[in-house]
Design goal:
The protein is 31% helix and 22% strand. Strands 1-2-3-4-5 form a 5-stranded mixed β-sheet, sandwiched between helices. Strand 2 and strand 3 form a beta hairpin.
Length: 159
């Protein structure tokens, strides 16, 4: 149980991996995307806890009773145009019923703290154009949007 009876954000722990996989699956449904890999918890575990200095960082939002109801994941990336690193927030998700309660702002603050700890001065992320709630939230916290289209290309093995 959370001692101060307030919602909080903390770094993910290995025991959170099954819950993170559940939340990622809910996130994929919410964003109308393909479901995550069936072994997502194991994959995340290797990335988050399998090395001395993990490249990926994951924060979880927890209710006062200790239930993990959301997460944010981030990793340093590089901008050629700015010739510096930025922290890319890959995901920020809160379960339905947990939005609008201040947990999103706590997650954003924790991601910004990760950036500061790494000596990085900017966080970047994207959200689907149709996600008006997220866009309002990001505008409200002072973020600025940049319009782009995100592409993905599978890389198959060449013989």
């Amino acid at each position: 149980m959370n001692d101060d009876q307030q919602p909080r954000v903390r770094h993910a722990r290995p025991a959170d991996l099954p819950r993170l996989a559940e939340l990622a699956a809910e996130h994929a449904v919410y964003e109308k995307a393909a479901p995550p890999a069936p072994d997502l918890a194991e994959r995340l575990g290797a990335l988050l806890f399998g090395t001395g200095t993990p490249r990926v960082r994951c924060l979880v939002a927890e209710t006062p009773d200790g239930e993990v109801v959301g997460y944010a994941s981030c990793a340093p990336e590089f901008s050629t145009w700015q010739a510096r690193e930025y922290l890319h927030m890959d995901c920020l998700f809160l379960r339905d019923g947990q939005r609008g309660l201040g947990l999103g702002a706590l997650l954003i603050d924790a991601v910004k703290a990760e950036a500061r700890a790494l000596g990085i001065t900017e966080v970047q992320w994207q959200t689907p154009v149709w996600n008006e709630g997220a866009r309002r939230f990001y505008d409200r916290i002072g973020a600025t949007g940049r319009e782009k289209i995100r592409y993905a290309m599978p890389v198959g093995s060449e013989a």
